[in-house]
Amino acid sequence: MKRQKGLTLIEMMIAVAAVAIVFMATATVLAFGHKSLNQVLEYADLQRQNSHALLAISMPVKSARYAKMEDDKKSVKIYRKNDWIRFYFVQGQNDLDCHVKGQDPVTVIDGLVGDVEFEVDNTKVIIKLTLNRNNSQSHLVTTVLMRNYQEGTYDDEEDYDED
Known about the structure:
Number of helices: 1
Largest sheet: 5 strands, antiparallel
Strand content: 25-35%
Shape: rod-shaped
Number of domains: 1
Structural class: alpha+beta
Strand order of the largest sheet: 1-2-3-4-5
Order of helices and strands: HEEEEEEEE
């Protein structure tokens, strides 16, 4: 009997199964890589927003003459020459807002703030900021020195218009 060239049905089934296994393994690796990439990009975005917020807070603190923290540590008021600026956590909305004397409040970080805490220690302000999105969290802490610090209290906003 003469042998015919070609594949038997069993050989064909084994080849198809092998290709299917290789394809499924490749698809699994790609799906895992895509998920990991999305997590890294989300974390990087949180880090960027956290850095932006800390920069927005630290610039006025550097030029401050005095800073006052509220009892709950969720708000700090920065007194500068002829004005003040207040940063505060809006619970429920998870926002970090900013209010400059004589202007409308603006949102610095919208809906991502997990927690914020301010500490005032003489010439420095310590800022602890945590941002959350989905399963990612970014936590940054910084200490900012007040370059124009002047000892005293500035409780009465009306009287703070003078030098």
